[in-house]
Task: inverse folding
């Protein structure tokens, strides 16, 4: 009997070996099939916007705040050293979306929540371009491009879905702003009355956590075999108010003495953790290597105004709301295997503006640049990847205040003032390498 048991066990073991081999072969074939199907599609794009991030806040610059995910992505990609945006949120977001300077798309200042205007409906957005190229398009986080009519909300501007808030700022936990609750779920295109939902389920949950979770869900649910993915992830962090779960602030108790800066550090660390979660979701779907990641601030950190919560722009002068470099020269990079395949790495010192994203990403997504209003942005892809010279020698910066001269006789009015001619009137260090920067408004 004992010998019979041994023979039976050996027989079963011998039968299992080919079965396991066949199963492994099947799984390998399925994995290779998924990779081949994905490889025939354009790369996915994850476009991350950080709100009110200072020039000296991320770990690879400050060496004070721990942002390992952001640092790793930056060091494996290309840091954009001479990258400019507008001085406040809505104008920068409008330039990202349209490829047009604020002076042309009409969003020249941040949009108050009670305003009866938004990004004009005749503007073509980046999301619409991605959608036309066959992408699934999803927006998560802060919108701030108008919501006084349904047509100005995200799912009417090219996005398949949206989870977040329409206005510019609110409590991170209660999601209240000015006595109103602003947290929405718009699950389908053109989601207006009868479709758009108030997101009560996330009340009292920290917004950074919500947005990271929702972006990860989009990744988890997407069918990568049939369609590439574009995710616009616009965090509320690190905008005012200064709020963060205590667990993120505690690690800085012994390293950052200033309470304001310590809370800010916790806010940024939470954002970094969220980005890690989203990239891990991509990795779990075997899509991280097929995803281009764009990381950009919408403006410099507020340092001299009432909305400051601890950001730092050293060594730049000024901050948010100003046209000094502290308000307009932003932290940004691109990362991912699609960039590495194209030969890009290191530091890009060519002049770049937030309006350049729409034309630049056409080289990745394959959409055409026809059908838009006249673009101010230029395609930087060849220059970033080292196959062409930088295409820009000037950008337009400015704001809606009287800090820029309106006099027609002032060269800055036309957006072209050189350091040699008007250096005393321009932000210190604003002009380098022969580039021209002007107020433009």
Result:
């Amino acid at each position: 009997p004992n010998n019979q048991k041994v023979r039976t066990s050996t027989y079963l073991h011998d039968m299992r070996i080919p079965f396991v081999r066949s199963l492994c072969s099947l799984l390998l074939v399925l994995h290779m099939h998924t990779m081949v199907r994905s490889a025939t599609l354009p790369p996915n794009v994850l476009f991350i916007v950080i709100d009110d991030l200072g020039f000296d806040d991320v770990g690879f610059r400050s060496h004070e705040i721990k942002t390992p995910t952001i640092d790793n992505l930056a060091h494996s990609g290309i840091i954009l050293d001479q990258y400019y945006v507008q001085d406040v949120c809505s104008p920068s977001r409008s330039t990202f979306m349209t490829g047009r300077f604020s002076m042309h798309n009409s969003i020249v200042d941040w949009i108050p929540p009670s305003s009866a205007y938004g990004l004009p409906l005749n503007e073509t957005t980046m999301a619409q371009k991605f959608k036309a190229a066959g992408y699934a398009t999803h927006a998560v986080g802060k919108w701030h491009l108008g919501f006084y009519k349904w047509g100005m909300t995200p799912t009417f501007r090219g996005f398949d879905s949206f989870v977040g808030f329409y206005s510019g700022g609110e409590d991170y936990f209660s999601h209240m702003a000015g006595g109103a609750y602003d947290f929405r779920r718009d699950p389908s295109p053109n989601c207006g009355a009868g479709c758009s939902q108030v997101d009560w389920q996330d009340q009292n949950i920290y917004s950074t956590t919500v947005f990271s979770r929702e972006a990860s869900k989009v990744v988890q649910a997407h069918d990568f075999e049939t369609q590439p993915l574009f995710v616009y992830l616009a965090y509320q962090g690190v905008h005012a108010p200064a709020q963060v779960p205590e667990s993120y602030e505690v690690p800085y108790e012994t390293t950052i003495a200033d309470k304001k800066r310590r809370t800010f550090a916790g806010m940024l660390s939470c954002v970094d953790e969220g980005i890690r979660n989203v990239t891990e979701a991509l990795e779990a779907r075997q899509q991280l290597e097929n995803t281009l990641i764009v990381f950009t601030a919408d403006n410099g950190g507020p340092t001299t105004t009432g909305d400051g919560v601890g950001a730092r722009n050293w060594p730049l002068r000024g901050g948010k709301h100003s046209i000094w470099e502290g308000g307009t020269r932003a932290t940004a990079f691109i990362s991912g295997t699609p960039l590495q395949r194209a030969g890009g790495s290191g530091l890009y010192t060519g002049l770049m503006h937030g309006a350049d994203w729409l034309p630049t990403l056409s080289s990745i997504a394959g959409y055409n640049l026809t059908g838009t209003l006249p673009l101010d942005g230029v395609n930087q892809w060849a220059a970033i990847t080292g196959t062409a010279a930088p295409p820009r020698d000037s950008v337009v910066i400015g704001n809606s205040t009287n800090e820029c001269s309106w006099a027609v006789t002032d060269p800055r009015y036309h957006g072209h003032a050189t350091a040699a001619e008007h250096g005393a009137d321009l932000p210190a260090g604003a002009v380098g390498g022969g580039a021209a920067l002007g107020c433009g408004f």
